[in-house]
């Protein structure tokens, strides 16, 4: 159980490193979307392990609504900078 959470936290470090390293706004937004996805999946795993479905509902909302808004914002920023 703890090994899975440690592996998830280590996988979360990859997009954090990418967001700090890259200067392109589009790549930073994609890295932040990846961070949000990994965090929400970690919330879902913790909710299943604790058998607490209220935490799971929050994880599902973050996964479904949060990434859509972040990707829409990234696309708008890219279109403005290209035009």
Task: Please give a structural write-up.
Keywords: Membrane, Transmembrane, Transmembrane helix. The chain has one domain (about 1-80). About 90% of the residues lie in helices and about 0% in strands. The N and C termini lie far apart (about 50 Å). The chain has helices spanning about 1-20, 25-50, 55-80. It is an all-alpha fold. Helix 1 (about 1-20) runs antiparallel to helix 2 and helix 2 (about 25-50) packs antiparallel against helix 3. The chain is flat and about 50 Å long.
Outline the biggest β-sheet.
none
- Span between N and C termini? 49 Å
Structural class: mainly alpha
**Low-confidence segments:** none
Based on CA atoms alone, the radius of gyration comes out at: 15 Å
> Counting H and I runs of at least 4 residues, what is the number of helices?
3
Q: Give the topology string: H per helix, E per strand.
A: HHH
Task: State the helical fraction.
Answer: over 70%
Strand content: under 5%
Count the domains: 1
DSSP strand tally: 0
Give the overall form: flat
Mean pLDDT: 80
Transmembrane segments: 31-49, 56-77
Keywords: Membrane, Transmembrane, Transmembrane helix
What's the helix and strand layout?
Blueprint: H1 2-21, H2 25-50, H3 53-82
Helix pairs in contact: 1-2, 2-3
List keywords for this structure.
single chain, 83 residues, mainly alpha, transmembrane, transmembrane helix
Summarize this, please?
Keywords: Membrane, Transmembrane, Transmembrane helix. The chain has 83 residues and is mainly α.
């Amino acid at each position: 159980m703890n090994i899975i959470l440690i592996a998830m936290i280590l996988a979360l470090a990859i997009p954090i490193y990418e967001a700090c390293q890259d200067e392109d706004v589009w790549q930073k937004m994609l890295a932040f979307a990846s961070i949000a996805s990994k965090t929400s999946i970690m919330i879902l795993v913790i909710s299943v392990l604790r058998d607490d479905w209220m935490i799971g509902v929050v994880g599902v909302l973050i996964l479904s609504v949060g990434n859509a808004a972040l990707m829409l914002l990234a696309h708008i920023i890219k279109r403005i900078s290209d035009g």
